Amino acid sequence: MSKVFTIAKGLENMGALRTGGQGSVYKGRRMGPIISAVKLLPTPIHTEDDDDKNFRNFQNEVNKLKKVNERPNPNVVKILASGLTESGSFPYIEMEFIEGPDLEELLKPPHDPVFTIKEVLKLADHLANALSHCHMVGVKHGDIKSNNIKYNIHSGNYVLLDFGLAIMSDEQRRTSIRHAGAIEFMAPEQNTGAMYMATDIYSYGIILYELLAGQVPFPLHDSGETARNAVMIAHMESPVPDVLALRKKNLPAGWTEQKRDIEMRVPKWLLTLISTCLEKDPEKRYLSGMSLQEALFDGSLSTGQPAVSLDQLPDKAAFRNTKPALGATGVTYHQGDKMHISKPLFFALMGMFAISLITCGYLLINQNLPPVPIKTTAADTTKKDTDTPKQATVHDYHSKERANDSAAQQAIKDVIDGERQKAESQKKADSTGTPQDTSTVKQPDNNP
């Protein structure tokens, strides 16, 4: 594809930023100083007829992407526009241009080959927040890799980029993944073109593994088809190499012995989280960004373990409309370091303290008052003197929350089962030459 072509009216093409088999990214500019990144997909759509399957799929996925921007998130790139190019009818997505290095660049000289534990936890929090935000509106990314995550030098946030794979049809996705995808970051089920929310979770685990170990668990040594197949088979069958052994091997030689010793103390809960993300079976992983974020939050509160920090909160207007990251609780610290408490934790502690004072005051004032009588009904008229009103407990609240979460988890499992059946049907159709039923898998009702 030539560098010189018209993207869309009012959108100037300023040259290629990155090219690849899954599409090319160009630098774009609209009227004025607004700079953007424009992802072009490699397969054109030559009709805008609603009866055309590829165009209909494109429109459906674009409509999903619009929901990503309904509530701004500091860890998700803003989608500015989408459509078909004036030249060639190639699908494109225009996104904000994030100034700063990507993770791939941050792992190369002059940078250290591994991240510190504190920085891994920060990235883990930011990326989990991004996935939770996307999954909550039904968007699966499908192409999470180290050069699709950038560090925004202005905000200090890690930002998830490039939703190109999300708007491909199933057929386009299968072809693209097999021949051009970043095979080192792919989940086992992507070999058949399947893509679930749990697929993003697997790639998330690969990212954290790479930052700790200095390399992915199953590296690609050359771009040949044989090497690619070997990596995909490893994803499907091979055990994940010990991340701590690789981290010890790849720690920078310039670090002091004390720092090397500290940086080998990776929290056990974090290792467990990564291990769960890298399960071969998608149903054994965290099923969505929301459940991943909950696990990150629970782990960060483990006794004696480092906590997670969200250094950069969205502005007040955005914060009112965005669920804050569940992992935003504190930072890793060691003896002699200053301990910093993040804003969400500070306000939570102050709120708990205020509630405790009010409760104690109420009990002191009302300690001699008789208990409030239980309201009786026709079916319950045998009230005893020893009856006391039943109080709602924290356990009751959490039980209700967990029941709601279980219902949501079951709904996600139903979606995975449906998508898996669809992928198996496609695989059988490919082998027998029988046309596949292209009807959309019905999404379960998530309402309890």
UniProtKB/TrEMBL annotation:
Positions of region (Disordered): 379-448
InterPro entries (alphabetical): Kinase-like_dom_sf (IPR011009), Prot_kinase_dom (IPR000719)
Basic and acidic residues bias spans: 381-404, 414-430
Transmembrane is among the record's keywords: yes
Keyword Ligase: no
Matches recorded under Gene3D superfamilies: Phosphorylase Kinase, domain 1 (3.30.200.20), Transferase(Phosphotransferase) domain 1 (1.10.510.10)
Matching Pfam families: Pkinase
Keywords associated with the record: ATP-binding, Kinase, Membrane, Nucleotide-binding, Transferase, Transmembrane, Transmembrane helix
Membrane-crossing residue ranges in chain numbering: 345-365
Ranges where the Protein kinase domain occurs: 11-297
Residue stretches of biased makeup (Polar residues): 431-448
MF terms in GO: ATP binding; protein serine/threonine kinase activity
Cross-referenced CDD domains: STKc_PknB_like
Cross-referenced PANTHER family: MITOGEN-ACTIVATED PROTEIN KINASE KINASE KINASE 20-RELATED, SERINE_THREONINE-PROTEIN KINASE NEKL-3
Protein name: Serine/threonine-protein kinase
Organism encoding this protein: Mucilaginibacter frigoritolerans
